[in-house]
């Protein structure tokens, strides 16, 4: 059994992330707790709504009820990226060249490293933003689809339409696919390199008993893991048409206990799965072999993140019982 170092925080913990070897935990109250030679606390927001790890830098990006977008370093240093008074910021994304995107109502904003901010307007509220893996381009999820915008050039936006509310969005690591979570219990995807109008352009991933709130790509992009079922539902993306015509793998099946978070190991095809009862399993893709990483706790797992070496796993929960799992022990 791996060793678990517990950390009890007060209230709902929104996310757990590593910056280098330093774990950080973000609470809904707006505090950032980091374990760096002891527990250290930064008051970041008056009410925190979202906290992500910037994939392009060793920092966190956060949005709050105070209308602020912040960048937080591994030492707790806080840099204000934007401030929109009297608005809630629940959508942020990190991009190349120190770009940061955030959404307010029906607009996406991208702040560039030189301080300029570009606005992209939609007809409906922006629910999520993702940067493409190549080129300075964003995907803005909204009602009835996603809009793709080039940030630095004046190219026309591309609309990817599919009826329904799209609440999250992610690019595959190779940029060939775009996948959204939906308000209904489903994922929807587009094959971006398909000829326009081709049937293969759409990918329907349905059959979930609950909403999908967590997605994770495997290190080489061959698999996309998702929550929203009493197991991790893992779709194959290695073929040219992605998961179309192929059933997903189901890992860590636990009767009627729902998976709430998924996180692929940074270098191996091993998936960490957090459940609504606080249990965490590690499952190997090759043979489905399971390892118990944490026994059930007080609250649903609300955040999972591996360290860069893949030896440590940070977890957060809705009840504040958090911690670090050391799988090298």
Number of strands: 30
Q: Uncertain runs with pLDDT below 50, 5 residues or more?
A: none
Helix-strand pattern: EEEEEEEEEEEEEEEEEEEEEEEEEEEEEE
Helicity range: under 10%
Major β-sheet profile: 6 strands, antiparallel
Structural class of the secondary structure composition? Answer: mainly beta
Output the strand order for the largest sheet: 14-15-16-17-18-19
User: How large is the count of helical segments?
Assistant: 0
- Percent range for β-strand residues: over 45%
How much is the average pLDDT?
A: 94
Radius of gyration: 19 Å
Give the overall form: globular
The first-to-last residue Cα distance is 8 Å
